[in-house]
Design goal:
2 helices, 2 domains, 38% strand, mainly beta
């Protein structure tokens, strides 16, 4: 099975692919993982780790670390478990790891966000959005509806950076890269945009 992450190619970004941090579960044996850098260099080895800022590949028994800003694409090749032809051999993505039963069933596959920076998956009762910089966060209810009406990740708020927090006074709040949405029973969702 082949899985991949493509960064920066607008023609290919429309194809659903796994996110950078989808490689974190490393219990799956890997063969011939390829990291292609933006300068065109290609490294072949075994993916051994990833974080929000770097990717680690074992190349000829030595670990190579790459800053995520340098990476153009990552291609994973995974051998399915003996007798298993299902997709269960695929590493789970940060979106899959964040999933909550309250969101309901997925209504589609994980997708590249229109801005080309993040990923998302829609569920019956909301969505989960992810970038390597912000992590994966659920969007649902009136706060999620307001964010979507503003343009979602392309709005002035950009991506969510937290889950919804219940405040002691009954308000609900969710933080974003460039602001906050606060919901009150009386006023509904209120948007606060911070200076960039």
């Amino acid at each position: 099975m082949v899985y991949g992450l493509l960064i920066g190619d607008p023609e290919i970004m429309r194809i659903p692919v796994l996110t950078l941090a989808a490689m974190i579960p490393l219990a799956i044996s890997a063969q011939a993982d390829l990291v292609t850098l933006k300068d065109g260099k290609i490294y072949e080895g075994t993916l051994v780790g990833a974080s929000r800022t770097e990717v680690t590949l074992e190349v000829e028994r030595a670990k190579r670390r790459f800053n995520v800003d340098e990476v153009a694409s990552i291609r994973f090749e995974r051998a399915p478990a003996a007798g298993d032809r299902s997709r269960s051999a695929a590493p789970s993505s940060p979106i899959d790891q964040k999933y909550s039963v309250s969101l309901g069933s997925a209504t589609g596959d994980e997708q590249m966000a229109p801005d080309g920076r993040g990923r998302y998956r829609l569920y019956q009762n909301g969505a989960i959005y992810y970038t390597p910089q912000t992590g994966a966060h659920a969007m649902s209810g009136p706060i999620g509806d307001m964010w979507l009406s503003l343009g979602a990740e392309r709005s002035e708020l950009c991506y969510p950076t937290s889950e919804v927090t219940n405040l002691p006074d009954g308000r609900r709040m969710q933080r974003f890269e460039h602001g906050t949405i606060i919901w009150t029973q009386q006023d509904g969702p209120l948007v606060q945009v911070s200076a960039r």
